[in-house]
Amino acid sequence: MANSHVYLSRLLLLLPVLLPRATLADVGTAASYGPPYNPTACYNSDPGQFPADSLFAAAGQGIWDNGAACGREYIVRCLSSATPGACVQDQTVRVLVLDHATELRSTPSANDTTMVLSKPAFQKISTLSAPVINIEFAVV
Fold first, then answer.
1. Which residues of 109-128 are buried (b: 16+ CB within 10 A; e: fewer)?
2. pLDDT tens per residue across span 83-137
3. Which of 118, 114, 113 is CA-nearest to residue 137?
4. pLDDT in tens, 14-39
5. Which of 17, 37, 64, 106 has its CA 20 to 30 A from that of 1?
6. Is the distance from CB of 140 to CB of 92 less than 8 angstroms?
7. Is the pTM for the entire model greater than 0.90?
8. What start and end residues bound the annotated signal peptide (predicted)?
């Protein structure tokens, strides 16, 4: 009987290693947009809302969460695109949500996406020749 307890204890120790790791990332789509960026749905015309590196995004309807997405940060990675060679391999970008995709002042490269990235953010993970990309994203 003692051997079965030892065996079970060792199995329980190995269980986290044997099981596939759960991920907290979601998948969706992203488009890009350029200026004018101001005013935004989150912070109106405050010029101090924009990060110095211009890495920000507008939340699509699926992640907007009645405005709760304002100020959220996401890590975003390009997974694929209908445009061959669009993704920058092994590259991620960290973006700050400043706007709602349905209220942008400029026209995005595609509509109804999970998020719309500023052009500098989009270029970190993809070529601008791709109007839309498939992404993996997670809240930071």
1. bbeebbbbbbbbbbebbbee
2. 999 999 999 999 999 999 999 999 999 999 999 999 999 999 999 899 999 999 9
3. 114
4. 444 444 444 579 999 999 999 999 99
5. 17
6. no
7. no
8. 1-25
